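Predict structure. Chain length: 385.
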Amino acid sequence: MVVVANDLASKTLPRVLIVSRRTLRKNKYVDFVGEYHLDLIVSHGAVPVIVPRVSGIHSMLQSFEPIHGVLLCEGEDVDPSLYAEKELPGLSQEDMDEIKRLHASDTTIDKEKDNIELTLAKLCLERNIPFLGICRGSQILNVASGGTLYQDIDKEVGTSLKHIDYENYDEHRHVARLVEETPLHKWFEEMDQIMVNSYHHQGVKRLAERFVPMAYAPDGLIEGFYDPNRYDPEEGRFLMGLQFHPERMRGSDDEFEYRGCVSVYKEFVRAVTAFQKKQLAATEIVMELKKKTLVKSFSGAELLEANRVLSKQQENRLKQMGATVRNSCVYMKRMKRKEEQERAMDKLSEKRLSDLLSFHRMMARLCSDAIKRKLVEPADRTTES
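Prediction complete.
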């Protein structure tokens, strides 16, 4: 169901970060994102936030907070040095030259895009942010999780199956066998196999341990994978990579070839929305606790102000406890505040306590990262000077 724009105006919508791809047009660089991705994200009720492929942006990603989801899609080959395979194994220089000639538009490494996308992928892994990787995005996810890639399928796998056809780019399809009892199998109405498009000369070689395959090409190449421990859209969990492009699997009438193509984005946005709600709920809990604590603390302070005369016995006891008559109000207020907080926490449900704990852990990580950056900055400035 498409969400009408007017219905969205009054809502705070979840934000999905998408990194742009850089290309040369009329001798000038242009950043772009495929419009199909943007249409599908918007139509299911989220806001796509485009992260430009600009030098240094990977160190400024905190400025894009709050991040409720990340979608990474097409782009150039991932830098081989990032997964510890710096040379094509067993290939001659002639083979390497041929690969660069056949796939000239993809073999130019973009280290800045790699940095941006790997930083985002690792952030999602650390903070359980919903993540969907399409084509290159699935390869980035596998590398970020400790997996490796084939740097050229034809040369390394020796397959006769075409995974890219420059003469028939948009219409090229090949069979993909779906693995039972996986999200992909469910979305595509439990079909044994589907015909998928294919625009790549690289692919997953060693799948990271946390992932489970969802689809295979006839030559054994993995066409889709996910983390079963991080998949529950209603609870805001989603971690998945697809080698093919469901957003582009359309007929001449622009209709999708399978309903499952839409389900990929629908379930991803559902997870993004649930993740946002959890974040908001955790924030509301913290704000509510702060509000109650402040109100009760002020009322306690007023009571203490009204009764400033302490008995000799009270004064001596406060001194023994490390307080003085001067700061006794502050000390007593802190003791009272602690008791109020403990009572307030006891009243919260197990779920709300879990959400609050998740929020504080997230805040602790953010503060830790900020401290690390501040500690590094002076050293950087010294090096520059």
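Summary: Confidence is low (pLDDT under 50) at residues 1-6, 299-308.
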